[in-house]
């Protein structure tokens, strides 16, 4: 719904939080990309042996 | 018409179907690992969950509709396995120590990039339903609709969970207030367990808090 809160820090009458000026006005905070990075970093890991073996075993019954 | 109308379920799969299924399953395994890793703090436990999911998916392959998203389908299985496992074993989602050692504490002033392990740790402090919602949408790239389907809840519920999860993470990270392995706190345990029960019992249908 309100995903476009780009201008949190704008003068909309809210008391200005002088604490983190630079941070607040990007649509996505740095850590939001971090979530994706976290996910992708695991996706990019080589598959552990036990999982590869399990995949191989799933072939059972068919000729591969 | 296919000759298999007697069955209520889909027709039995041919060897070729099975191969296609296996191929697709193989492709999503890395994603299953990523989702599982986000759900539980320990990589070994996450991979156990992936194994369980693969076996269940394989056993249930007749119920997979070719052409639909294998990733979404297997995520449902993984999610259910996770919820069952967590309820059975109590909360064992403690953070892996080896990983924890690499954590740099986020400074209050933000110039420093957020360490991935910090983020993961913060993620793990979220209630499970919000954690999974954020993982699906914010990390896995699912749409709100897809995430709602995976979690068996309304789209609005997913949106609100993601929103709350983001707000919580944002405040933790911006304040440099990421708890260290706080899941050791017994009252937090109880709260998480209760929430898990709700999520599991209500099939993911959780009331909006407040």
TrEMBL record, chain B:
User: Start and end of every RNA polymerase sigma-70 region domain?
Assistant: 28-90
Q: Which Pfam families match?
A: Sigma70_r2 (PF04542), Sigma70_r4_2 (PF08281)
- UniProt GO MF annotations: DNA binding; sigma factor activity
All copies of the RNA polymerase sigma factor 70 region 4 type domain together span: 118-169
- Protein name according to UniProt: Sigma-70 family RNA polymerase sigma factor
Protein's organism: Alteraurantiacibacter aquimixticola
Query: Which keywords accompany this UniProt record?
Result: Sigma factor, Transcription, Transcription regulation
What protein family does this chain belong to? Belongs to the sigma-70 factor family. ECF subfamily.
Q: Which InterPro entries match?
A: RNA_pol_sigma-70-like (IPR039425), RNA_pol_sigma-70_dom (IPR014284), RNA_pol_sigma70_r2 (IPR007627), RNA_pol_sigma70_r4_t2 (IPR013249), RNA_pol_sigma_r2 (IPR013325), RNA_pol_sigma_r3/r4-like (IPR013324), WH-like_DNA-bd_sf (IPR036388)
A GO BP entry is: DNA-templated transcription initiation
Organism superkingdom: Bacteria
**Which NCBIfam families does the protein's record reference?**
sigma70-ECF
Instruction: Give the signal peptide range.
Output: none
């Amino acid at each position: 719904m309100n995903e476009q809160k780009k201008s949190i820090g704008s003068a909309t009458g809210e008391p200005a939080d002088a604490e983190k000026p630079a941070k607040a006005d990007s649509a996505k905070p740095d850590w939001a990309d971090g979530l994706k990075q976290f996910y992708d970093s695991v996706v990019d890991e080589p598959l552990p042996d036990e999982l590869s073996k399990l995949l191989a075993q799933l072939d059972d019954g068919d000729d591969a | 018409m296919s000759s298999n109308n007697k069955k209520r379920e889909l027709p039995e799969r041919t060897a070729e179907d099975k191969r296609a299924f296996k191929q697709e399953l193989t492709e999503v395994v890395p994603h299953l690992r990523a989702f599982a890793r986000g759900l539980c703090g320990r990589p070994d436990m996450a991979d156990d969950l992936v194994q369980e999911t693969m076996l269940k998916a394989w056993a249930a392959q007749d119920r997979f509709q070719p052409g639909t998203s294998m990733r979404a389908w297997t995520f449902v299985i993984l999610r259910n396995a996770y919820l069952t496992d967590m309820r059975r074993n109590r909360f064992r989602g403690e953070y892996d120590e080896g990983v924890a050692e690499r954590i740099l504490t986020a400074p209050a002033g933000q110039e420093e990039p957020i360490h991935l392990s910090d983020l993961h740790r913060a993620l793990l402090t979220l209630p499970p339903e919000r954690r999974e919602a954020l993982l699906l949408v914010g990390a896995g790239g699912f749409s709100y609709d897809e995430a709602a389907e995976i979690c068996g809840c309304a789209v609005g519920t997913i949106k609100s969970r993601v929103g709350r999860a983001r707000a919580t993470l944002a405040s933790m990270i911006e304040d440099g207030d990421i708890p260290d392995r706080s899941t050791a706190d017994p009252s937090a345990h109880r709260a998480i367990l209760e929430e898990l029960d709700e999520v599991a019992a209500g099939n993911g249908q959780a009331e909006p808090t407040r």
